[in-house]
Amino acid sequence: MKTFTKTLALATGLTLGLAAPFVRADAITPLTTENLPSATFNSLFQPISGDSVISSPFTYQGSPASGNVVSQVFQGTGPAAGLYAYAYQYDLNNVTDSDNSPVDLKGTSWKFNSTPILSDLTGTGTKVGAYTITDGAIGGVGAPGTQTPTELDWEPKTSSGSLLATYFDKTQGIPALQAGQNSATFVVLTNQAPTQKFVSI
After folding, report:
1. How many CB atoms within 10 Å of residue 76?
2. Domain limits for position 105
3. In the chain, where do the E strands start and end?
4. pLDDT tens-digit profile of 172-183?
5. Considering only Cβ atoms within 10 Å of each terminal Cβ, which end of the chain, N or C, has fewer?
6. Quick check: is 67 in a domain?
7. For residue 8, is it within any domain?
């Protein structure tokens, strides 16, 4: 089994400045996540007009076409008006690396130059920093798998920020995302629209 995974850097095209601060220090802050039915999400958010789903391939050393990062930005309607939802899904191809070991995905990080907004889309009375979707597709993002991040973190910087997703937990016996699998879709909310229409590795 592959024992390391290459860190990804995804530029989501956000500019920092408008969102209320989530934290005030350059420290990694865990984002509490909650599962959200796809029907609920689709009733609150619509794909931004003219912006299509983006599928960006990534490659591990010795393993061409290792997988894809699928992403799309949605605009809130009704009770979610004024919010933007940034959705991500990781799809691993059923391939091996240079050691003939199946690829896997243990963790990734990417630029997210806005501040995540806490919200309560499920009506439980508890605000969370992100949502996972496992029961159906949203927008142009394909059908999700069931494996959600074991941890999702926000790391603010002086003029930018990053999100970090971890896909395994040794203490809980949760393995990494395996070759041939899709991850669950996960969504982070902000009040900033995208300023660029690409995702780059």
Report:
1. 18
2. 32-190
3. 29-30, 33-35, 45-47, 54-60, 63-76, 84-92, 104-105, 107-111, 130-133, 151-156, 161-166, 177-178, 185-190
4. 888 888 888 889
5. N
6. yes
7. no
